[in-house]
## 1
Amino acid sequence: MIHIYVINKKNYCVLLYTKFSSTPLLIPLNPKITKDLYLKMLEIRYFEQQIEKGFARDQINGTTHVCSGQEAVCAGISAHLRLDDYVTSTHRGHGHALGKGLSPERIFGEVMGREIGLCKGKGGTQHVADVTKGFLGTNGITGGGMPLATGAALAIKYQNRNSIAVSFFGDGASNQGTFHESINMAAIWKLPVLFVCENNLYAMFTHISKTIPTETIAQRGEAYGIKSLTIDGMNAVDVYTKVGKIVEGMRGGSGPVLLECLTYRYGGHSKSDPRVYRTKEEEKSWKERDPIKQMKKYLIENNIYSADEIKSIDNKKKSEISSIYEKVLNSPYPDPASAEEGTYV
């Protein structure tokens, strides 16, 4: 039995550093791979920060859920996906969409209600989708993406393709009936679906220690007889390396896998969440293991980039995302006459 969590008197979860290192694994990867991982994480981080600024400036309406802190999971897994693979996402799905190759401009457009948006600005943050890239959508229903990914995996098997389907979901969704039903069906039919639990410790405002009786969420997959494992979701190199082996096996017919990625969202559940249910000390301890900082260290220690080069790359990517945002901000809203076009009931 592997013990991963220590729950203290305040019910805060502390990651055991004896299980997961606070520094990147020194696994030699192709420099291009590490560069791509870093760029994708930067793109996600700066995209989410720009969204937060937009709300603070009253330039964006509605609500949103950002994934700052969880970039290693999005980048490390998406790096193994092809155009003909499928992804289903969550309410916190901008990173998944960017990872699958969707346009930052069109995602901004959808979140900001502009005509250039992926759904013409009519769906918003929880209805971002692009089937041409295999991204079957963000989803406002907790656990709503898992049955969709299972269905996509069934289609793949019927068509005798070696594609896979990936379903991202949070720790709270592992208590939904869709979680158990989807994994059970995928296990019985040996479907090529990767169930990815982004365990950031909190289902909205509730700590997992109050809702999940098992030591890990991965143990729940073992009950259905599928391969299940828990990994460090703050380390992009670790995620990329371990997921590569999983995806290779799934393309060869090994069947479904449940992957629990231990990660942390820096912000609240949504933009209006003051995070009074967790301590500053807890937040600080997780930010010390920031996935982007870890990757910077990896790149420098392995002589892939110098510190000055990394600074230049960071500034360039931040400026690029800011420019895209400003372009979308000044783009037109949909014509009110088109309100009923492309909608289905």
## 2
Amino acid sequence: MASKPGAAKGGALLIASLTLAMATGATGTYSYATLSPFLLPSLGMTPGGMGLLFGGLYTVAAASSGVIGRITDRVDPTLVVLVGSACSLVGTLLLAASFLIIGLAASALFAGLAMAASNPGSNGMIAHRIPPGSRAFATGIKQSGATGAGLYLAVVLPGLAVAVGWRWASLAA
């Protein structure tokens, strides 16, 4: 079955946008991991404290994923993706501005919410906007955004943190 000429282009733009949404949802986690060697001495944290921070981030993500998924069933999934992206932005700004553990904890809270929102929101958009027969492909491509973000941040952030400091590097994420 042939598709309309503009449908492929619109579908490609949607898939690219959802791939970026997945990258955005994963940014907080990968930023903490990549920048942890800089965060520990700068904020007087121990490796155990960093582990607790990660645990808190993943607890928020796991505990809120089902709720966010349920919300996604009831509202336009675009809204969920946008709110998740906003949470990622707030988490990143809090990370860069943190001088105390409480700031990092707040940043981890928002990063966990961003992580939890990215998958149900983007999957909902695929379910509503991508035709059957193309959804699995679209899902596979958009999932690569999370891994791509990890690769990008692992390659770019350490050198950037050395060059301009971890706070500016975290904003570059």
## 3
Amino acid sequence: LLNFIKKFKDKKNKKAAFIYGPTGVGKTSCVYVLAKKLDLEVLEINASDIRNKEQIQQRLGSSIKQQSLFSKGKIILVDEVDGLSGTKDRGGILTMAQLIDETYFPIIFTAANPWDTKLSTIRKKSEMIMFNPLTSNDVSIILKKICKKENMEYDEDTLKSLARRVGGDARAAINDLQMLTINNKKLDKES
């Protein structure tokens, strides 16, 4: 994804990236981390909020060609594009595909399932980047880092159990950790 953003201006590269993978693996977070690292602004839209041709044109049409408010470069993030339906959202996918051809800035789509036939038009115009599912060990490592940075006490077995219960969804694990430790900053069997 970093290479895609850095090499965006190269004419032979695609103008959109399509990152996909299970819920809670960090697709959207990764875009924000890279934008911060590269000093870029993120214009995020959720595909479930803008659904048809008119709404997409209104929200994205001028944004794909105009410099940001602070004269920074930007990334156009279309989150959860697989949330568009084929019937209610008439023209939505086709309009997004046309915007890829016109954009001056990288467009990044996220989805859990990019292989739906309705997405084939934008999939063909995008660099496909897979985010692998997280293991319970991956989630456990993330939770440990958070506990250490937040100066939280934790029971190793309880933390590992929490990591196993979320099925690879780091976001769910972080939310659970927050709820369980909000009162006493301690994760133990009792909590």
